Structure formats: structure tokens, C-alpha cells
Amino acid sequence: MPACQGLTPRAHRLLTRVRAAQDPGAAPLAFLVSGGCCGGTNPVLCYRTNVIEGFDVPLGDIDGIPIFAHPDHAQYLERDRFVIDALDDARSDTFSLEITHGGRFVLRELPGDASP
Amino acid sequence: MASTAEPLGAASDVRRYQLFIDGKFVDSKSGKTFESISPHDRAVVAVCAEGDKADIDAAVTAARAAYEGTWSSMLPGERAKLLNKMADLLEARAMELGQLETLDMGGPIFLTNGMAMMAAEVFRYWAGWATKIHGFTSPSMTPGDFIGFTAREPLGVVGGITPWNGPLIMAAWKTAPALACGNAVVLKPAEHTPMTAMELAKIAAEAGLPEGVLNVVPGFGPTAGAALASHPAVDKIAFTGEYVTGRLVVQMSASNLKTVTLELGGKSPHIIFDDVDLETAVANALFGLYMNTGQICSAGTRLLVQDTMYDRFLDRFVERAQEIKVGDPMDFATRMGPLVSDEQLQKVKRYVEIGKKEGAKLRTGGGQPKDPALAKGFYFEPTVFADVDNKMQIAQEEIFGPVASVIRFRDEDEAVRLGNDVIYGLAGGVQTRDIKRAHRIAKRLQAGTVWINTWHKIEANSPFGGYKLSGYGRENGPSMIEHLTRLKQVWVDLNEFTMDLFGM
Predict the structure, then answer these.
(1) Do B239 and B109 share a domain, yes or no?
(2) Does domain A4-20+29-109 have CATH number 2.60.300?
(3) For the segment B228-271, what is each residue's pLDDT rounded down to a tens digit?
(4) Is B91 tagged catalytic?
(5) Most exposed of A54, A74, B275, B302 (fewest Cβ within 10 Å)?
(6) If you write DSSP's letter for every residue of B363-378 in order, what string do you get?
(7) Beta bridge partners of B385
(8) Do B186 and B295 share a domain, yes or no?
(9) Is any Cβ of chain A less than 8 angstroms from the Cβ of B337?
(10) CB-based burial of residue B370 (10 Å sphere; 0-12 exposed, 13-18 middle, 19+ buried)?
């Protein structure tokens, strides 16, 4: 079972706004889970070309968008099941593509055991 | 009775800021603006022009023209005078700048005032360097009479992308050294906290910095930030922020091979041995962790405590954490203000839940304060997790909030092993009275800064930056000049008759 279980309705609405603003031929998207400093451990919506194949660890596929994380972050994310939610009217220091569309994607763990 | 800083103008005043491009304050080309809210009560405190790619293009063009036109050929002493003037103006306005930063970011006023004074010091330090940047001579290694020398030349246009956790001091780090080295600068401040970077732009104008030498373009990361990082006419990017965006900056920089320095996250170990005075150790640990509500990359978030003093330390640390005055950051007595944003608050809450699930022992805090006066703000209690295993997620990932992970160790080797067992390497520290042990640990910690019996000492004259996923390059200190200049080697043949290798 993939670690990432999908999007909440609010996150889905935010993603729809991002896609609506994209050119038809725009590059395919990807989520990369960030870490550290001000940006937080939250997903950064970027392009598939930003993923480092063979290094970043795949954590699932959401609505056609693959999600990856650095191996050291992935070891914890793989332990739990999580969804991608969104905060409305939120911003972030990251380059995540949704920020100009009035929201910010965040991770939410689903209830369950966190022990390794 | 504690006094509260009165913001200049009415507290309800909404300040308006434009972009600063080519010496002029202008609206964004799109006409868009964004609001900055106070983390204390979510009131709108500023409306700021929102720059995007078109505005970054204009700023880079202005910076390039200023660099080639006046700035790079200006006498170094003249550049020094201008930077000193900016330092004077920053110092004169430190109280006001501190207040604006507190409104914007939520840091307590005692801290933001201090950081404004530090920003002035950064400008003064780098004003001194403007006249002292030079190369060296090289003897010829082959026969003949030659003279060789190096010239240290500015890079050209330097882009700075700053975070929200110390908006003015970060703006000073990204601008003063680059300007001192003869570069022109485009600064993209964090979208949560544009105010003091825009005030720095006003100070630059007032000081008489030539048009275009410093440009400040607030905006969002995926538009303004990405445009700056990928701009082909920008020679270098200095970025402070998180790991993935740091990586995106590196990828975007590849087109024109611009140089990059990155200051990213941290999860710094604060190692405390049983030979120290308990009260001093606790005071130091509180300062190292809860300053700025834990929103400092180099915060000592992993408290590694020797098992022989673990219980004593923990009890006293929890007691003192509970006594921290959390409240309105405009109050001079407040020691911990709110977190900067809802995103931050949600993230800290998430990690507290993770810590509980992992089996760490929540000794205090873990929620928002009950005080109704703080109900609208992004406040969070000073939080302590005890009996943390260094492999737990709360010990490995940067929470960037007021959450301590207290971890037990037996001896020096274990302390070093645990201290280094993390993906970051920004800072670390040790408290002990044993000078030999202190230095051994300083040598063994994989961190860009090591503090012995102190914390958060970050000075304009000393390099700051990370090992491992905390990034590369250093800010501050003389070594930063290498990140902001290029070396040119010049060889001169002094022989009247040069050997004609291709002659008959």
C-alpha cells in the first residue's frame, strides 16, 4: 500500500486551481516532500524533471502526480499512511507551485501506529 | 509593570510597500499586491506589491546596468562610505525596525530590536572590507623574469532569497557583503515578512546608494523566487530556506552555471555533561532552543544530556520552560511570541502528535496557550519531549518550533555519535567545564558552527553555514568574499626579449 493515500477535498480543489492555470502543454508535475528550516516538512509541488531518479524515494501517486521524498525523510513517511491536505489563504517560503493560488499543501498522518 | 512598545502610527495602520527597482519605488507590473498579517492576531499589517518574473527581469536589468555603469568602478572607499551610512541609518531606526519586524514576524520586541542593531553591525563590518579586498602576487615557477598577480573582481549581479525568521538580519547578510565586494544585488524577501526588507530599500535610497545597485522585489517563491534563481543574467544566488527549494535553486542555476550558496535546515545537538552548573546549563539550553519560538535553523533542538544528571536537568528544564513568558511580542517582557504562520502552527502540532505516537514522553506543553488574549494568534506552548530516542522522527526532522527533544547519553563517544547521527549539520554545542573534552567534541561534531558553553553566537565576522543537508558555502566573515568575487590571474613578461619558440 503506498504511503500517500491521496488528497483531501480541499487539497483537490487547490490542485484543480493550479492545473487550470497551467498551459495545456505544461510539463508534468510531481510532489517532493521538503524538510528543514522555514519551509517545513511539507510537500513541494514542482515538476517531474525536478525529481532525481534513483535517489528520491517514491511514496505513491496522487491524481496522476507522483510523490517522492529524500530517503531520510521517506523512511518515516513510509512507516505511516498520510494524505495531502491544504491550508487556505496560506503561504510558504518554498517554490511550491500552489502558493500563488491561495493555498499551501501540507501533510497529514492518518490515524495508526507509528512504531517501526 | 512591563511596558509595551507603541508601534509608530496607530496599531491599526496598514503600511503600504512598493517594489524597489532602479532606485524607484514602483508598483508591480501585474498590479498585484499581497497582504502581510500579524501572527499575534492575524490583523493585516501591510499591503505589499507582488513582484513576479517581469519585475525580477526589470530588477536584474537595472542591477546589471548599475554594476557596469557606476558601482563596480566606484572607489572602494566611496562604497564603504555608503555602507557605513546605511549602518548609521539602520542603527538610528533600530527601535522602529524592531517594531515593524515584530508586527510582521511575531518575534518578541527585545529580540527584534537587537537583531536590527545586529543588521547595522553587519553593514559596518562589511563597509570595512570594501577597501580591503585584494589578491596576491605569484612568483614565476619557470625561468625568466615574470610578475604574476591576482585581481579579485566582483561577480556582477547577486540574487538573495531570504526566509521569514529574521527578515532584516537575513536581508543584511544577503546584501551588505555582496555590495561591499562591488556587486549589484536583487533581493527577494520572504512573502510572510516583506516589511523590514522594504525599509532597508528606503534606507539605501536615503543613504544615496546609486540607482539599481540594490533592488528589492517581494513576491512568491514559484514566481519571483524561481525567476531570480533561473535568471541567465544573475551570477550568483544566496538562498536560505528548506532542502527541496534549495535543490530547486541548484537545478535552476544550472543554465548559466551561476554559483550558489545554501543555508538550509538544522537539528543541532546540544550536549550537556554532568560537570556543569545545573542552573547555567538549563538557562543556556532554554536560550538555545526557545529563542524566536524555536524558529532559528541553528536552534539547539536535541538536548543530549548525560545520564548522571538527566533527571535533575530534565525536571529543572521543564520547570523553567513552563515559566517562559509567552505573549504579545510587542511587550518588552515577552520572551516567546507566536509562530509566524498557520502553516508553521499546523506543522508543530503535527510533530507533537508524531512524538506522542512514537512513544516520547510529553513533559510539558504540546498545545496552544489557553490565554484568550492569544486565541487569534499562532501561539504554541514551550514543549518538552523526554526520553526521546535519537532515531525517532521528532529527533531527526526539523520541527522549527518550540519543541525540545531530550535524549540521554552515557559517555563522550555516545554523545558524539548521537550528535552526528542526523542528516543536518548546521550547528552543535557542548556544555562542560572540561576544556579538553570540550575541544575534542568541537573537533568531532559535523557542524558548521560549534558553541562551547554558549549558544546563538553568530557574528558578522565569523562564517556561518552547514555540513551535510544544511547546505554549502558560508555567510559572514572574510571567507564569504570568496563566494562573492572571482579571481583573475595576470602574468606579465618583464624580459625585453621573449624566447621565440616558433621562430626559425
Answers:
(1) yes
(2) yes
(3) 999 999 999 999 999 999 999 999 999 999 999 999 999 999 99
(4) no
(5) A54
(6) EE--S----GGGTTS-
(7) B362, B405
(8) no
(9) no
(10) exposed
Minimum Cα–Cα distance from A112: chain B residue: B357
CB contact under 8 A, A37 and B297: yes
What is the value of pTM for the model shown?
Answer: 0.96
Domain boundaries defined on chain A: 4-20+29-109
Question: How far is Cα B93 from Cα B204, in angstroms, rounded to an integer?
Answer: 13
Q: Do residues B109 and B99 touch, judged by C-beta distance below 8 A? A: yes
Amino acid in position B329: P
- Contact yes or no for A35 and B398 at CB 8 A: yes
Three-state secondary-structure class, residue B263: strand
User: Looking at B101, B121, B263, B381, which residue is catalytic?
Assistant: B263
Which chain B residues contact residue A93 at CB under 8 A?
163-164, 190-192, 221, 241-242, 245
Pair B326, B195 in one domain: no
Assign residue B242 the CATH number of its domain: 3.40.605.10
For this complex, say whether ipTM is above 0.85: yes
| Placement of cell 495602520 in the chain | B13
Which among A39, A89, A100 has CB closest to B241?
A39
Which chain A residues have a beta carbon less than 8 Å from that of B107?
none
Confirm whether B263 is a catalytic residue. Answer: yes
User: Chain A residues contacting B, CB < 8 Å?
Assistant: 32-42, 44, 46, 50, 70, 72-73, 76, 87, 89-97, 99-100, 104, 106-109, 113-115
- Is B22 within 8 Å of B116 (Cβ atoms)? no
Q: Is B64 inside any structural domain? A: yes
pLDDT tens digits, one per residue of A58-111: 999 998 999 999 999 999 999 888 999 999 888 888 999 999 998 999 999 887
DSSP B166-221: SHHHHHHHHHHHHHHTT-EEEEE--TT--HHHHHHHHHHHHHTPPTTSEEE--B-I
What residues of chain A lie within 8 A of the CB of B343, using their CB?
Answer: 40, 42, 87, 90-92, 104, 106
